[in-house]
């Protein structure tokens, strides 16, 4: 019983490490999705600011802006709007304009401000269309009491409110050093247009040190929460802004969220916590799980091992169960747990069970470290499992596939009773290698991950007698390295001798 208790403790400790690694990957996946979304928004803002600055250096007035400008009207001597589109103008090239009157005089400084805003129509429309499911409004707010926004709404339903100048992202331009060069993130607020809680990313547009306006994209907080959602999340996940105010939370708890040491698990406020800063912005992702939830998760994760422990105890008094357990342990000891392929310790057993091999093939996955780094270790594990599955489809039932170590595999090609003592034909061996290589290279790996490309390099060596096995493996391994040196994704025969 003491041994079983010690084994249980070791198992729980091991599972805790696995659990932390898995949840780290879950948090990292959420951070990557959020970063991608924010990078897209930032890219649009930078592009629009670049166009605005280019227009300011030349003349913002164009044929498009003049058509829209001529449609402007002032309602009740105070509200500006464009009630109707010019004839023949595509709807996407006109947003909603709203502001305070009077109508600007053509050629005036204020008219130039309106032309600048209207010249941004194509980029505003593109950003609004591309980001439609993730953002609320895409707009330009002028310091001259008007705004121009997408998507287009009926002008009577959108009304300019000067209170927008009190938003913290607008105030930051005048109070923060170098704020005019940054992409500013607001605090959460309720949308004036009724879309709910949101935050705003903004890019100031300056001329000779003066703030002309602000290009902005509103991020809906419910959409940020959706981006945090992960199917394998156990615990809480919170996105904090630069003031540690939660913007989005999955599985929230009443305890406040405070960042800790970055990218390291720590116990803080009675919970296991991981702080994950998002790159290139001021947001922080926090993963947290309390002790009871953690204990439950570990017990659930350890169910198989706990059952095995009970099985050991019961096997002590049951010979039938003991034999069943021995068979299971024998299988585990000779097979790779991840892929189901044989492991290298099973080599001698397999040689005694089958006809002598007539050739060996060594192969491994090209640039496998890059697969793990770019796509994550979970995808890397799936790649190894799929490699084994594809190989088993290609090989004959009496051939043997062995996971030699890491991403490297050994294939023993069995002979026949009629061909005993003869090495495999090199030409046929090359055909087998190429068939295996092409099957792997042509598999639709992008179904697992959009950036995934998988190829293998192979080295092969024929052999006539079992006592040549070690030499043949060494020769095939050398040929494998030659295949890698020659550019990978190829099969190379061992040099005889």
Helix content: 40-55%
Mean pLDDT: 85
Oligomer: single chain
Q: Which parts are unreliable, with pLDDT below 50 for 5 consecutive residues or more?
A: none
Counting DSSP E segments of at least 2 residues, the number of strands comes to 20
N-to-C terminal Cα separation, in Å? 57 Å
Describe the structure.
The protein is an alpha+beta fold and 497 residues long. 42% of the residues lie in helices and 22% in strands. Helix 1 packs antiparallel against helix 8, helix 11 packs across helix 12 (377-394) and helix 12 (377-394) packs across helix 13. The two termini are 57 Å apart.
In short:
The chain is 42% helix and 22% strand. It is an alpha+beta fold.
Task: Give the SSE layout.
Elements: H1 2-57, H2 63-70, E1 73-75, E2 79-81, E3 96-100, H3 109-119, H4 121-130, E4 135-142, E5 146-150, H5 168-175, E6 184-185, E7 189-190, E8 197-207, E9 210-220, H6 221-228, E10 236-240, E11 246-250, E12 265-268, E13 271-277, E14 284-289, H7 291-301, H8 303-315, H9 319-334, E15 342-343, H10 347-353, E16 357-365, H11 368-375, H12 377-394, E17 400-405, E18 408-414, H13 426-441, E19 456-462, H14 469-485, E20 491-493
Parallel strand pairs: 15-17, 19-20
Antiparallel strand pairs: 1-2, 2-3, 3-5, 4-5, 4-9, 6-8, 7-8, 8-9, 10-11, 10-14, 12-13, 13-14, 16-18, 16-19, 17-18
Helix pairs in contact: 1-7, 1-8, 2-3, 8-9, 11-12, 12-13
